[in-house]
Amino acid sequence: MANDNYLGNKNLKRSSVNIEWTKELILEYQKCSDDQIYFIKKYCKIVNVDKGLVNFELWKFQEEMIHTFEDNRFSIAKMPRQVGKTTTVAAYLLHKILFNESYRIAILANKDRGAREILSRIQLMFEHLPKWLQQGVLEWNKGNIELENGSKILSSATSSSATRGGSFNLLYLDEFAFVPNNIQDEFFASVYPTITSGQNTKVIITSTPNGMNMFYKIWTDSVNNKNTYSRVSVHWSMIPGRDEKWQKQTIENTSQRQFNQEYNCEFLGSSNTLIDASKLGTIPYADPISKKGSVDKFEEVIPGHTYLISVDTSRGSGIDYSAFIVFDITSVPYRVVAKYRDNEIESLVYPTIIYNVGRHYNYAYVLVEVNDIGQQVADILLHDLEYENVLSTRSKGRAGQNIGGGSGVKYGLGVRTTTQVKRIGCANFKSLVENDKIIINDYDLLYEMFRFIEHNNKYEAEEGEHDDLVMCCVLFSWLVHQEYFKELCDNDARLEVLSSNQKLVEENLIPFGFIDDVWVDPDAIDDTDQQFNKWFNN
């Protein structure tokens, strides 16, 4: 009857419509409620590009997806393009709102249009259900569905405020790898904890890889058993009709790189990265063994080992970062054992942090970039804090700069990042990484490597990204091929240096974090620095 329809739509049932139930209908309804696969295959319709409206015949991997979603609170799916992942999730969400009272779902995509497209697929399936399977409709538009059983679906672009103030049983993040990185971080910081605070709430994340970002981190952490996400991985060959002939044709029509990312699901970086994209996708990272303030420590100091700190300095204005990396250079492969990264630290306080971390790591050698205010950092380290292991360079004109142990007018503290230094450093860093001569460890550094690209014949961070940690590695890699560096790593030379600084060696036996009578201008210390110094004093 016409008055049974919702707003004149003959395919929708309005609320409070009585259904004449028979024993057969009751049993069929119960079977649909209990068996999601049965319900989807028998009653869900989809649009096939060649055949039009057809029944949704699930492939085997799509059935496994649904079982994974149902059996786990947290699910993440890494899938190629055009494998029906969105349609599969849409059918699963439809079942959830039909057969559960007051079940609330948020669909979030990288763009609002994408989220509404998913909702439209759910609406198409709903409209072609028999009326006895439908719930009465209370609200029905491009962005929302509300049913008489109290269940709701909201669709929106992923943002830090997308679901704020709402209470949801299931959160679906579609193509999450393509959400801008800053929004991913804001979302997980502000919305995600609220969504996952319940005991039975679910989170489903699906995407094709798109370099290194939050999706990459969640997937990798799941592989390494660092979170509780259950994984779904689909290979392009699992799709009927996709064979080697299809693969060859697709690569010819696109590119090998595009195929690797969109169909082989490789976590490739941006195009033209310094480090080969295939190598970047294989580099693991580790969680710090301790994290205090802006200092991440990955390895404890080893007595007798030689360490070097490569320092990049910013003005502490909240834009670029002051950063340094501590390398264990005792043997190859070199290892990242600690890192510091902060964009608010004052340049007058920064040397004190380097001083204390350097002392902890066996009075590490320190290489400071001195293009800008880095010169001030190097001067304070050597002259005010009397840290003697600050490396100096000697300019040799067109021959560039050489690291040396000398002093005087021919030598200057630190290294100036010239075009030549950066070119040599980038080439050496690429060689070290791709030949497994350096162990990265740090997630932030690896992220920057994914975004360190060639632009106008030079390497730099993508627009809106940072390369402070990478530049520490570039300076370190430039240093590695200096003759003086070989002396630093030589056992006899190292023992000689340690012997001549016996007093300093003995002082370095004190626990990590201790500061002894280091003068710092109190006017230069902000709240962040006070917290840092408090940690070191404890």
Quickly give the CATH architecture of the largest domain.
3-Layer(aba) Sandwich
CATH homologous superfamily label of the largest domain: P-loop containing nucleotide triphosphate hydrolases
Helix coverage percent: 25-40%
Instruction: Give the CA-based shape.
Output: elongated
Question: Which keywords apply here?
Answer:
eight-stranded mixed β-sheet, alpha/beta, 20% strand, single chain, 2 domains, 20 helices
Task: Outline the structure in words.
The chain is α/β, with parallel strands linked by helices and 538 residues long. It has two domains: 22-234, 3-Layer(aba) Sandwich (Rossmann fold); 298-503, Nucleotidyltransferase, domain 5, CATH 3.30.420.240. Helix content is 37%, strand content 20%. The protein has 20 helices and 24 strands. Strands 7-8-9-6-10-11-5-12 form an eight-stranded mixed beta sheet, with helices on both faces. Strands 13, 14, 15, 16, 17, 18 and 22 form a seven-stranded mixed beta sheet that branches. A hairpin with a 4-residue loop joins strand 8 and strand 9. The radius of gyration is 29 Å and the shape is elongated. The relative contact order is 0.08. Residues 491-498 and 503-529 have low confidence and may be disordered.
